Amino acid sequence: MGESPNILLIEDDEDDYLLAHDLLSEVFGNQLRFEWANNWQAGLEAISSRKHDVCLIDYRLGQRSGLDIIRDAVEQGSSIPFILLTGQDDREIDLEAMEAGATDYLVKGQISAPLLDRAIRYSIEQKKVETRLANMARYDELTGLANRTLFRSHLVDCISQTKRNGKVGALLLLDLDNFKDINDSLGHPAGDLLLKEVSVRLAEGVRESDFVARLGGDEFAVIATNLNDTGGASVLARKIIEEMVDPVNIDDWDVFTSTSIGITMFPQDSADPDQLLKNADMALYHAKNNGRGKFQFYNAELNARAQKRKEMEADLRQTLEEGGFSLHFQPKVNLLDGRVVGVETLLRWPHPEQGMIPPDEFIPVAEVTGLIVPIGDWVLRAACAQHAAWRDEGLPPIPVAVNLSAVQFKSPGLMDVVVQALGDWNIEPTDLELEITESMIMDNLDLTTEMLHRLHGLGVRLAIDDFGTGHSSLAYLKRFPMDCLKIDRSFVRDIVDDPDDAAIATTIVTLAKHLRLGVVAEGVETESQLEILRRQGCEEAQGYFYSRPLPPKDFADWYRDYQRRIEVQPKTISMIRRAAAGP
């Protein structure tokens, strides 16, 4: 016989009270914990004390029904299990009891000690299961924070509260800036540990009155009320960002992360919970675009941008489906002999209504929506197809370079796309070069190293684009199977007048030679820039000095004309070689 649960009996008949006491004593002996309330009001007060494990309640309490107490108690948030006691075996009463919130129903004349014991144990366990299921429906299992369902319900209440008290509230939507990379490199268990630590830091970084929820994945939300203006939300956002600065130790690894936050105020921005979430999401998108560890308030301008982004996304999808993109090609020229040694493939979007849309406008939208992967795959296949078309026209094989986006580079299907494109158009792997930015390479070293070695194993060439603008470590750079460094145009632009840019270009050329890599200067526009690059030992260049990016047919015409010109200027080529060789 174990310890008795704390039992409350609400019964206005003393004889029935004594009978219940005797039966319970028979079950629990001197371990019995038992309280009797002999009227409706006393029973309701006892329930509100929340110290009982189960309540036995009579169906008739004078002029009131025990079901009324059950309904009132449930409405007030009581979680105690109720067992209804009645003098008649009536199926209608049974159903009515269940609908009111009772867990069991016993007929007084049929109650025995074992039956009462079973009913009490059953009701307590059933209530535990119900409570656990209710918590699962309202709370996140991993972090223990409120989930999306409870969050939305609380947001509705907070909006109503601000309307009543004249204060303002803030919804802060945040996610981790590099969570996917941590999951990919350290595994999902490590990601779960990080999410748990983030939830603890969030709880510590907000006020006691603030409400924290996990909406899914690495997305969290904070609801702050009783604010006077946006200043309070700014203070809270900065504090949350500061809480994330210190590294999280996972399996003896110090994992650094940061958070970006989008903020919308209510009721001034909106009094609709769904619209507030959209507002905060728009602000979060722009916060992430401004760099890691930033926060951004929602405003009408963001809404206009979001609408434009939505329209552009729809246009991008339609253009991709209809094959409406085009490719332009810019030549790369060898500075020693003037030969065209390759072309860089550049994506263009000739919109039927808006004209040519610049890549810096539509590429960010494609990256955010995930469209960059199918678009990038199309570019890769189309570039290979054009290489084969020029070959069939009688042009010598011209290696094509294709830029990879960060999302496409991490795509598990990239290898298959490359292999299929090479095979479909019977292209030598060395005639395909993939350009990857410096920041992409350093983003996830283990994943990057593996992917680069797999691609290089196919025989394709690999180049680091925009070199000098990122944060690569030379110690890691020598481990990567790269073939070429491309000097960013920002260093070439002022190379004639700015000694610092000239020194940077010289350093990159020297580094490339020591690592046995080729080097290409981007954005060359003048003969003066070209002469300095030659003297520094730069091997190849591309830019408007030679040609703007051209459509396929125009490039073929330019190439034939260029070849004719350099073939009839042998003295010029000789001078180029002497200049490159130095005094």
The CATH level-2 architecture of the largest domain is identified as Alpha-Beta Barrel
Strand content: 15-25%
**What is the helix content?**
40-55%
Mean pLDDT: 88
Oligomer: single chain
Strand order of the largest sheet: 15-16-18-19-20-21-22-23
User: Structural class, from secondary structure content?
Assistant: alpha/beta
CATH class category label of the largest domain: Alpha Beta
Keywords:
Rossmann fold, 23 helices, 583 residues, alpha/beta, Alpha-Beta Plaits
Provide the fold topology.
Blueprint: E1 6-10, H1 14-28, E2 33-37, H2 40-48, E3 54-58, E4 60-61, E5 64-65, H3 66-75, E6 82-86, H4 91-100, E7 104-107, H5 113-138, H6 148-165, E8 168-176, H7 179-186, H8 188-205, E9 211-216, E10 219-227, H9 230-243, E11 248-250, E12 253-255, E13 259-266, H10 273-289, E14 295-297, H11 300-322, E15 326-334, E16 340-351, E17 355-357, H12 359-369, H13 372-392, E18 400-403, H14 406-409, H15 414-424, E19 432-437, H16 438-443, H17 445-458, E20 461-467, H18 474-477, E21 484-487, H19 489-493, H20 499-514, E22 518-521, H21 527-536, E23 540-541, H22 552-567, H23 570-581
Parallel strand pairs: 1-2, 1-3, 3-6, 6-7, 13-14, 16-18, 18-19, 19-20, 20-21, 21-22, 22-23
Antiparallel strand pairs: 4-5, 8-10, 8-13, 9-10, 11-12, 15-16, 15-23, 16-17
